[in-house]
Design a protein that fits this description.
Layout (H helix, E strand, L loop, with lengths): L30 H7 L6 E5 L4 E2 L4 H11 L4 E5 L18 E5 L5 H5 L25 H12 L5 E4 H5 L5 E3 L4 E3 L2 H4 L4 E3 L4 H12 L13 E5 L7 E4 L10 H7 L9 H9 L12 E4 L13 E4 L3 H4 L3 H13 L8 E6 L2 E5 L8 H8 L6 E2 L9 H6 L2 E3 L1 E2 L10 H5 L4 E2 L2 H14 L6 E2 L1 E3 L13 H6 L19 H11 L6 E2 L7 H4 L3 H10 L4 E7 L3 H7 L4 H17 L5 E8 L6 H13 L8 E2 L7 H8 L20 H11 L7 H10 L36 H9 L2 E2 L8 E2 L6
Helix pairs in contact: 11-23, 15-17, 17-19, 19-21, 22-24
């Protein structure tokens, strides 16, 4: 049994000597600002792909202000010109390290749509100007930092680095790429919400430690030449173990693969000893035997298939994804090891979640809650969207396979106190220019997981479920929304607060467990429309998404309508759906379209599945297998819509009412032998005749390529390979 893990209190580290300089109005972006603060240098410089907004919803501000609270002088280089190293030297040489992040979004998702078209704007840039950050920003920025000062350690983090901590399928190049730690030539990677790891890394570097010796901090990824002697390695690098694996135990004992790494032998000889038995050997245990062996979990690791293997074997890729997700509980996760050539990627267990006083402390840091003054009157859309919203918690235990929030923030909910949230509301009221009394959101990754945690710390420490609410709500999960309801009531009572809307996504399967909460929400916090995300209607697809069935939706809709009527309001649900999800077939999308028409929904904003790095659904997309189940080469293949025409057809089903989609839908329905759905009757999906010969076809010309990534590369005439410091287009590799 695993006991709940503890961590040093976040703000307990000794302050760095430079705390005497106090708090900066804004973290400096120029040497002039540094001079005004009396600084001769920065201790830490953060390089980011976003414009600098001093607000707790922007990662560079959170980490920067937190490091400042620890006594460090922190500078910001925001959206630098990456064509050379000049901008990366504008604040001088940092005394301790560069911190590199792509920003609040993955740079590739920020720039390209699911159909791999270039977006026309960037919400995190002044006036939404596009093209202010490079593709794969973490790699490019890290290379430029090395060019600027090659002896300065580089610490990478943020969501782009976090979701690329191991070898991962890359949708944009249609291949498996190496860990970004290797491609960026960085020294250490921090994943997830990184305050704990950042506090320890900065403290140890400030104490004079070499970055190469900092290799065991939770929430970090480093490289090592080999697994250290004395460790127990559980070999999970294959899925086709021989049936007689047990005979190895009889013939050779529990650990037939003990050996002493060559590096350990060499170091022993240097010390004047050539006796191998003086060194504790590395124990390698085949996965099928690991439950039969006693070993120390604190010095055990799991070997997943190497980069070289998973790049050629999609089944092994799905297996590696399965292991990664099973080792995500910070209280029982073990180190993951993945070979990349002659180096090992060493993924330390996730960080211990912040306690309420700690997360309160992070949100209480002296943010200006505005963009840096250098941007003048320029509008930053991402800031305008969140400037009157409040994040009340972190994490998500939903486990939706298409979403990367859980992989980044973890499954354990980290909630702020009521006092902290109410203080931030007062700060918005008093500090945000032109505040009208309207709060745009009280939420987070989800609207209604505030203070919803496991009823038992011990059970939570030993749990390996990928979701607390799928296939059903866990009996050990607290489902009372009393904390959220209380917070809503107190927030509404604050002077100057006129209206609070809830814009974050709602887990309606949880909400129906607490009718009082639904009544509170519907009566006071819905402004006519409430967004919810059933994502699909068909059980097979919903199971692969790890989403609840439509019975939960129906129950919530009934409750929503009841309380709206009682409040004397006409209010409506706006459901969101995903097209072309792995495992979703044409018939599933047809049934979803029929449900939409039967319920008189005409959705305008629809989403095509986007294979983001590291998600389980992306593993399904790439491998054609379901990593939610134990894998084997003989197992059933998972159908995955990849053709551009097919993905567009699935999207067209969601917009059955758009006449531009009627032609492609008629063709598809005839091929499916469902011609009875073509006509003008109330139970038919689309009309029999075109209204205009000029109607645009949703499917466009027939595609000759297998998937969007292939067409993307062909259209560009080569792939943008940011593994190279020059960042020049190179010829595409031969497709396997």
């Amino acid at each position: 049994m695993h006991a709940p893990k503890k961590a040093p209190e976040l703000f307990s580290y000794p302050k760095y000597w430079a705390e005497c300089y106090g708090t900066a109005p804004y973290l400096p972006m120029t040497r002039k600002e540094m001079d005004e603060l009396g600084w001769d240098s920065c201790d830490i410089i953060i390089v980011t792909g976003d414009a600098y907004v001093d607000h707790p919803s922007f990662g560079m501000a959170v980490i920067g202000r937190f490091l400042e609270s620890q006594g460090f002088r922190v500078g910001i280089i925001a959206q630098p010109d990456w064509s050379n190293a000049k901008d990366f030297m504008q604040l001088g040489k940092p005394n301790l390290f560069y911190g590199v992040t792509a920003g609040n979004m993955d740079s590739m998702i920020n720039r390209y749509t699911a159909d791999l078209k270039v977006r026309n704007d960037d919400a995190y840039t002044p006036d939404a100007a596009p093209g202010k950050r490079p593709d794969r920003s973490v790699i490019v920025y890290s290379q430029r930092c090395k060019e600027a000062y090659n002896d300065v350690p580089i610490v990478i983090g943020g969501i782009e680095a976090s979701l690329r901590r191991i070898a991962q399928y890359d949708y944009w190049s249609d291949e498996v790429r190496r860990s970004v730690l290797i491609d960026a030539s960085a020294d250490i990677l921090l994943y997830g919400n990184a305050e704990r790891a950042m506090a320890e890394v900065a403290d140890r570097l400030a104490a004079g430690e070499n970055i190469k010796d900092i290799d065991s901090i939770r929430g970090t990824v480093v490289t090592k030449p080999v697994t250290p002697a004395g460790w127990t390695e559980i070999d999970s690098s294959r899925i086709d173990w021989p049936k007689d694996i047990g005979s190895l135990e009889e013939a050779y004992g529990i650990s037939p693969y003990e050996y002493i790494p060559e590096e350990e032998c060499a170091s022993s000889k240097e010390k004047g000893s050539d006796k191998k038995d003086e060194i504790q050997p590395l124990r390698i245990i085949p996965l099928p035997l690991h439950r039969q062996v006693d070993f120390d979990n604190s010095t055990s690791c799991i070997r997943i298939p190497s980069f070289e293997k998973i790049s050629k074997d999609p089944a092994l890729y799905a297996h590696a994804s399965r292991v990664l997700h099973q080792e995500s509980n910070p209280h029982n996760a073990r180190v993951l090891v993945q070979k990349h050539g002659n180096r090992e990627i060493w993924v330390n267990p996730p960080p211990i979640p912040l306690e309420t006083p700690e997360i309160d402390g992070v949100f209480a840091l002296p943010y200006q809650r505005r963009p840096h003054p250098s941007y003048g009157d320029a509008k930053i859309p991402a800031y305008d969207m969140i400037k009157t919203s409040v994040n009340i918690m972190r994490g998500c235990f939903g486990g939706c396979t298409f979403c990367s929030i859980t992989e980044h923030e973890g499954r354990v909910i980290q909630s702020r106190s009521e006092e902290s949230v109410l203080q931030e509301l007062e700060d918005i009221r008093d500090k945000v220019p032109g505040f009208t009394g309207q709060i745009s959101d009280l939420g987070g990754p989800t609207a209604n997981m505030y203070h919803l945690n496991c009823k038992s710390d011990e059970i939570q420490a030993n749990c390996r479920r990928l979701s607390c609410v799928f296939p059903g709500i866990c009996k050990n999960l607290e489902t009372s929304h009393k904390h959220t309801t209380s917070l809503y009531r107190k927030a509404r009572a604050l002077p100057g607060i006129k209206k609070i809307s809830i814009a974050s996504g709602l887990r309606y399967d949880l909400a129906v467990e607490d009718p009082e909460y639904v009544q509170e929400l519907v009566t006071h916090h819905v402004g006519g429309y409430l967004k919810i995300a059933p994502e699909h209607t068909e059980k097979g697809t919903l199971d692969l998404m790890m989403k609840p069935g439509m019975g939960s939706y129906d129950a919530f809709e009934k409750m929503f309508n009841k309380f709206s009527k009682a409040a004397g309001k006409k209010q409506y649900l706006i459901p969101y759906f995903i097209a072309a999800h792995p495992g979703c077939e044409d018939e599933d999308m047809m049934n979803l379209a029929l449900w939409l028409k039967g319920n008189k929904f005409r959705v305008d904003q629809v989403q095509t599945f986007y294979p983001s790095p590291m998600s389980l659904a992306t593993a399904m997309y790439h491998s054609g297998r379901n990593p939610l189940k134990k894998l084997s080469y003989k197992g059933d293949k998972l159908y995955t819509p990849k053709d551009l025409d097919e993905r567009r057809l699935h999207k067209a089903f969601l917009r059955y009412h758009d006449e531009r989609n009627h032609d492609v839908l008629r063709t598809a329905l005839r091929k499916m032998n469902r011609s009875e759905l073509i006509g003008d009757g109330p139970n038919q999906l689309i009309p029999a005749e075109e209204k205009s010969r000029d109607s645009r076809r949703a499917g466009g010309k027939a595609s000759t390529t297998r998937n969007p990534a292939a067409k993307f590369q062909k259209a560009r005439g080569g792939q943008w390979d940011n593994r190279r410091p020059t960042n020049k287009p190179v010829k595409p590799k031969k497709r396997r």
